[in-house]
UniProtKB/TrEMBL annotation:
Transmembrane among keywords: no
Protein's recorded name: LacI family transcriptional regulator
Region named Disordered: 302-332
UniProt signal peptide: none
Lineage: superkingdom: Bacteria
UniProt keyword annotations, A-Z: DNA-binding, Repressor, Transcription, Transcription regulation
Lineage, highest ranks first: Bacteria, Candidatus Eiseniibacteriota
Keyword Transcription in record: yes
Listed GO MF terms: DNA-binding transcription factor activity; transcription cis-regulatory region binding
Pfam families: LacI, Peripla_BP_3
Residue ranges of domain HTH lacI-type in the record: 2-36
Residue ranges crossing the lipid bilayer per the database entry: none
InterPro entries: HTH_LacI, LacI/GalR-like_sensor, Lambda_DNA-bd_dom_sf, Peripla_BP_I
Species this chain originates from: Eiseniibacteriota bacterium
Length: 332
């Protein structure tokens, strides 16, 4: 649990100042007073740091002050965090990919305009932004199928995480569109970590026949996959193709550079602030839901050529916009 000292350190103010802000002390200058609280399920890793950077950049342009905190990805912890800020802030940005926030935010809410990032479910009265996960995963698998791969495995994210479930849906959809039925033995449960990628790849390497491509639910999982394949002396991409999702900054610097689906994490954060401020103008209207589009980024890790197929090695990086499937929400 994040303490008041953690908040003070992240905000670069004293513990006493944070205490006065939350107690609405008149001694706190307007420039210091908290306006927007950001609650994320994690504060570590390049994905969350980029989202926070986007929120911070947009907030600074509008002279807003942020407090960033995390919760333990449970409904109870989210409710406790929301109780702590209820009535004390002007705006709230909450990322809830694995938590049903309906009880925490309804019916009383938090007394402030609220934007949900990658919500488990869309909530009446709250604006939200999701990632085009199904489209991105489908585009990735179609690309691998186009290279001639047929035994395409996946290492998923947590079962409760909406992003992970949607990416698995896109993976299965692309296979079925190509006349291939998804195989349970090629779907390994992971948790978005390097360790789960490493352990999942070790399991897949024992399958007979083994996969000729592995699609990881995120880039950190893919990093673990690359480590396992290196230890097993399996060449990437010559022997087995690997792909990720998110396009974290380090993905292009891996060996080989990682083919992935780009999510504009910076824009995700910036859009959240814009939607939050715009919700004041839209007060009384219906909640708005935006969907952040994705981009297929082709690098060397998927470049294995199936037997009998000749071709030059792909360029270091090639980007392709992902065609959007009509769904609810405004595409951005």
């Amino acid at each position: 649990m994040v303490t008041i000292r953690d908040v003070a350190r992240a905000s670069k103010v004293s513990v006493a100042t944070v205490s006065r802000v939350f107690n609405e002390s008149p001694r706190v200058r307007e420039a210091t007073r908290v306006r927007v609280v950001v609650l994320l399920p994690d504060l570590h890793g390049e994905f969350f740091s980029e989202v926070i950077r986007g929120i911070d950049q947009a907030a600074r342009l509008r002279h807003l002050h942020l407090l960033v905190s995390s919760y333990a990805s449970t409904e109870a912890d989210l409710m406790a965090a929301l109780r702590a800020v209820r009535g004390r802030v002007d705006g709230l940005i909450v990322m809830t990919p694995g938590v049903d926030a309906s009880r925490a935010l309804h019916p009383r809410g938090v007394g402030a305009r609220t934007v949900l990032l990658t919500p488990e479910i869309e909530l009446p009265g709250h604006d939200s932004i999701s990632i085009a996960n199904v489209d991105g995963a489908r585009a990735m698998v179609r690309h691998l199928l186009g290279l001639g791969h047929r035994r395409i495995a996946t290492i998923t994210g947590p079962e409760r995480n909406i992003d992970a479930r949607q990416r698995l849906e896109g993976y299965r959809s692309a296979l079925r569109d190509h006349g291939l039925e998804p195989s349970p033995e090629l779907e390994i449960l992971g948790d978005f970590t390097e360790r789960s990628g490493y352990e999942g790849a070790a399991v897949l390497l024992k399958r007979k026949p083994r996969p000729d491509a592995i699609v990881a639910a995120n880039d950190y999982t893919a990093i673990g996959v690359l480590g396992a394949l290196q230890d097993a002396r399996v060449r990437v991409p010559e022997d087995l193709a690997v792909a990720g999702f998110d396009d974290v900054p380090m993905a292009r610097f891996l060996t080989p550079p990682l083919t992935t689906v780009h999510v504009d994490m910076l824009q995700l954060g910036q859009r959240a602030v814009e939607l939050l401020l715009g919700s004041a103008e839209a007060a009384g209207g219906s909640a708005r839901h935006q969907i952040l589009s994705t981009t297929l980024v082709v690098r060397r890790s998927c470049g294995s050529q199936p037997p009998g197929r000749a071709g030059s090695r792909p360029r270091w990086e090639r980007r392709r916009a992902v065609a959007a499937t009509p769904r609810g929400g405004l595409r951005t």
